[in-house]
Amino acid sequence: MDKQKHDLLEIYEEFHANMDKPGFRPLIRCASKIFDAPVLFTDNQYRLISLFPAKKIGDFVYDTLLKTGCLPDETIKAFHEEYLKKPGTRYQPFFEKDGLVKNFPRIFAEVYNDATVIGHIAVFLEEKDFKPWHLEAASILTSTLRIKINLTSQVPLVHSYSLQSLLNRNTTKQEKARAIVQLSKINKEPALLLVAPLDQIKSQHAFASVAINYCLHNFPSSLPIIYNDDLVILLTNENEQTLLTAVAEKISEYLMQYKILCGAVNPVTDIYSLPDYYLQARLTAIFRYRDEVTNNNLHTPLYYYHEIAPSPLFLYLSQHEEYACFIHPALEKIKKYDSENNTEFYMTLECFCKNLFQKNESSEHLHIHRNTLNYRLNRIEVLFGLDLNDYKTLLSLLISLEMITYQK
Q1: Which class for 87: exposed (0-12), middle (13-18), buried (19 or more C-beta within 10 A)?
Q2: For a tag site, which of 114, 308, 323, 330 has the least CB within 10 Å?
Q3: From which residue to which does the signal peptide run (predicted)?
Q4: Count of alpha carbons within 13 angstroms of residue 217, beta-carbon side
């Protein structure tokens, strides 16, 4: 154990001795010597920064990065789905020898700071050569790379910081005013806001950087960032509003390929109220995900808040622990009565409410005579003490039935 600690200390010192040399190649060459294996280092969008040795090794990922400097989206997706299924937003170095890498086992590691992923490394070991100290050495390498990146990288775009500030409800008025001035240089209202909640799995968080690069490359006027573990994209209105909508739907279709669904608010007419628009778009995305899971409905490439309101409101209320206290107490009693007496009062009342208390439409929907509907409604009033002619009672029942939809 003492020898291993001594060896790791030497590794740490060797990495740091190379950190001050220009570029990243000295560090990666040093890592290759320590691991006695090929090593590559990419940025957060899987574009090559450095690798050693500079020759093909017979692995698709390594050889593709050597030749083209970047990886196809399909390859990135495949590796994410294969190896980053576990919950969490970041991952420590780990060794894999099965699946896509069975012919060339390797160590994967993520280089990240407190806020974002800033790069990835891979050490192409053979299975027989793997030792536990390799993971510790990989961790030292990621720490060294993080320090070097933070020391040499440029200050991030001021527009990204401005958008972060405006999305945060706790930002001071003075800070918001400065952010609005900065964004006004690129944003002409009305704009459009896309929000894609990222599941708490490593694969989607790792892919978010690729999605940001896609937006910046294909739609230069877009402003994509990661905020609260969501991918948030502000589309500025440099062109016609219809073209802005077309751009939003193209981005949505791109994200759908990688099982990332988003919601949108259009138009965004008051940049100061961006936290409200953000919440609307996020709830719309969650509603869309529920719709996809429940009804397998992905025919519409993008859901807009104004098209599905007020459903996001009921979804928002259902996320609060105390929401059940606002459900009309008669509904649970009616359900229990139906179960014990083989009646259909709950279904009848639900249909009556969701047909906006229109008896003709309700009876047609239930495929029963209007007299039968009247009989059932009268029995509901008598048995459960409800006045179905009272506006507040009907409104309370309707809202309760909508909220129950989101109970799970």
Answers
A1: exposed
A2: 114
A3: none
A4: 7
Through-space distance between the first and last CA atoms of the chain, rounded to whole angstroms: 51
* Both structure tokens of 161: 């910081």
CA distance 163 to 186: 12
* pLDDT, tens only, 88-132: 888 889 999 999 999 999 999 999 876 678 889 999 997 768 888
Contact 272, 163 (CB under 8 A): no
pLDDT over threshold 70, residue 27: yes
Nearest to 147 by CA among 15, 26, 254: 15
According to the model, what pLDDT value does residue 208 have?
Answer: 81
Residues 202 and 91 in one domain: no
Sign of CA dihedral 267, 268, 270, 276: positive
pLDDT at 396 over 90: yes
Which of these, 353, 383, 379, 378, lies nearest to 366 by C-alpha position?
353
The Cβ of residue 232 has, within 10 Å, a number of other Cβ atoms equal to: 23
Q: Is residue 102 a part of any domain in this protein?
A: yes
DSSP string, 160-174: HHHHHHHH-TTS-HH
Q: Based on the fold, state whether residues 202 and 277 are members of the same structural domain.
A: yes
At 324 the pLDDT is: 85
- Nearest CA to 145 out of 122, 118, 125, 124 is that of 118
Looking at every residue in the chain, the average pLDDT score rounds to: 86
Confidence band, pLDDT 50/70/90 cuts, at residue 300: low
Count the alpha carbons within 13 Å of 251 in the hemisphere toward its beta carbon.
36
Task: Please state the φ and ψ torsions of residue 192, each to the nearest 5 degrees.
Answer: -135, 140
* pTM exceeds 0.70: no
Residues 186-196 as b or e (16 or more Cβ within 10 Å = b): ebeeebbbbbb
Range of the domain at 93: 2-152
Q: For the residues 149-170, what does the mean pLDDT come to?
A: 74
Residue 175 in any domain: the answer is no
Are residues 148 and 260 both part of a single domain?
no
β-partners of residue 268 are 191
With beta carbons less than 8 A apart as the criterion, state whether 385 and 341 touch.
no
